[in-house]
Amino acid sequence: MSNSREMRRLVAKWQQNTGWPKRLDWIEIDGIRGWDGQRIPFNFPIVAIVGENGSGKSTILQSAAAVYQPNDDTKDKGWFASDFLPKTIWEDVRNGEIGYSIREGDASKTSTVRKPGDRWRGNPERPKRKVDYIDLRRIQPIVARTGYSKLAKDATKEMSAANFDKERLNRLSQIMGRQFSATRMALTDADNNRIVPVFSDGDKTYSGYHSGAGQMTVADLLRVDPEKYSLLLIDEIETSLHPRAQRRLIRDLAELCRERDMQIIVTTHSPYVLAELPLEARVYLMQGQSGRHVMTGVSPEFAMTRMDEYPHPECELYVEDSRSETLLREIIVAHSKGLIERCSMIPFGMASVGRTLGIMVSQGRFPRPSHVFLDGDQSDAPGCSLLPGGDAPERVVFGDLQSYAWGKLRDRVGRPYAEVADACIKSMSLTDHHDWVNAAASKLTLPGETLWQAMCAEWATTILPADVAKPIVQLIGDLLLAQPTPVSSPTVRLPLFERSVDAFEDSAR
User: Fold this and answer.
1) Radius of gyration (Cα) for the chain, nearest Å?
2) CATH homologous superfamily for 5-130+227-284?
3) Integer Cα distance of 182 and 165 in angstroms
4) pLDDT (tens digit per residue) in 184-242
5) How many CB atoms are closer than 10 A to CB 144?
6) Where are the domains of the chain?
7) Burial class of residue 349 (count of CB atoms within 10 Å of its CB; 0-12, 13-18, 19+)
8) Which of 50, 299, 318, 380 shows its CA 20 to 30 Å from the CA of 70?
9) pTM exceeds 0.85 for this model
């Protein structure tokens, strides 16, 4: 998850359960654009929906918009399912349904908007909430928008303008990484409906006709001023923005979300957007041979690998995170080095994602040989094996190396034994084992990845018994021979060590 201050604050408030009196907990879509009853959970105030084109991302946003009707005190007509799913000469939704669960205060409600025949039903029973839906029309260059080319020719003067207030101007400057002295949304004498953004940057003033697409996109986003407790929906949020601007935009929305107790759902193809969010805020839509799968808690690496056409090696090995990837890689290198160049390792995120992938592996749903490795502290699951040790990788490697007086880790990292032992032992006193590697690496003035790779290499080479490594490399070898792995394949576990540490005492002195 992002280490940004804004996201940490949002996570803290969410975990304290001190806000968000109005929430959309989940929706289920059935009989619409290939959906057949899958549930999409919204387990965080900001949720990113990711998937290939045509996977159903926009349908989720549109369905969420159709769940609510506007408050009585607004002139907004709100959204209806019929706005997004009109009857045409090619399509006519029948038996379509959008199920939903909402929460207002301590009360929860489950209901549906449905179309059993010619008309949608359930609209009057919908809960009331302000919904802002920002679709892809914002990404069009201003000269390509309907009527704007004529506007540029016919306008002779600016008739009125709505200026960005100081807060919104600061947000625009922060996201774009440049200081704007003023920004306004102007109307001209040629058309009193078509708005033109006008930017002031120091002593230079220019309109949307002469600004970049990213700047226009953010300005259009900031035109919307979401109400407290409202729902904001944004399609393809990263469009036209460079990576730093994408990160800044998500952080800006996190702050807005926390301050106004609002809920935000976005669609994206960007790893930078995903990386800013906690695991529970990432939802991946996977289209398999047996239909659509909704997976929560994926890693950015997993999402990008699934969407990329870049050539992959002969088999895919799925692991929980980068630490697990390094451990498995060093096991393979130490016990059957020739296999490693033929394998692609993909971190997937939460263990629940791995179990879902394991089911798909066991049912032969992947186009190439694949297998899932869960961390050793997880339970057995179909299509999965457990990494050795019966515990989290950090606990296994640190604990075993400590028992063997750290082996020859000092030689691998180029630091005195006393410093290595002291740094590693002190880091193990930390409550969260995920912090051990970076804490020890910091004391040794090493990158965390460098220390962890050295520890895994020493552990796999010196401590891991050959009879424990053999089933792992044999399983991978079978995958490369395109031999299907049985669903009931034994879970790989590391037995308790009974070796003497005497052999290591000389190297530790």
Assistant:
1) 27
2) P-loop containing nucleotide triphosphate hydrolases (3.40.50.300)
3) 9
4) 999 999 988 888 889 998 889 998 888 888 888 888 888 888 999 999 999 999 988 99
5) 9
6) 5-130+227-284, 139-222, 311-508
7) buried
8) 50
9) no
